[in-house]
């Protein structure tokens, strides 16, 4: 990939990510509180709906940019083309590697954000300090495996090279469907990130978290927050992909 194309991908991915995360933040807060073990009301209800937004604002641009710059560079060195039978695999591999890199930034931001969302009376800085004090840096990467697994299951759907309006429509439908399918993993990720140090979920084992949710809350627990999650990802796919394609075109 040429340097100019790399910078265009970096800027376009970053701008699109910031727009989506900030616009849809209230939906994300509602989803997190619905998935939290203490329940929606005790987690804050509709109070402090923007709790944790500083963490998202800081991490959004580098997170989105890291994904797309990795995705574009990996895709450029792998076999691809509209007539190639390897094209879908190329997009999947590029998107998967993009998520692995992006999650190095996303997960610490997500841990602090979610803990702030269920503790609206605590500041983002205080939660960051408490996490580092009690758990160290590894505490910021609680849920890394579950986050990568969740993202890899649907991120490859974003790899179609089409017009911006087509990308937006495809992103909305693909994102909404993937949101429903991956909700149990998202609930497990939330429980792992919010778990107290030393608890079973704090080990980061996805199957343990899923099993615990199934035993205590059943199917409804596994799909907690599915409606706001589906709405946020559908709208996010529409905004993100459309904005990315258009911004990328304008920068080249």
Key words describing this protein structure:
252 residues; mitochondrion inner membrane; MCP_dom_sf; 0% strand; transport; 11 helices; single chain; globular; mainly alpha
Radius of gyration: 18 Å
The number of domains is: 2
Give the rounded overall mean pLDDT: 83
- Termini separation comes to 13 Å
Unreliable residue runs: 157-168
Supply the number of helical segments.
11
As a percent range, the share of strand residues is: under 5%
Helix content: over 70%
Secondary structure: number of strands: 0
Structural class: mainly alpha
Largest sheet: none
Order of helices and strands: HHHHHHHHHHH
What global shape is seen? globular
Organism: Lepidothrix coronata (blue-crowned manakin)
Family: Belongs to the mitochondrial carrier (TC 2.A.29) family.
Keywords: Membrane, Mitochondrion, Mitochondrion inner membrane, Repeat, Transmembrane, Transmembrane helix, Transport
Main location: mitochondrion
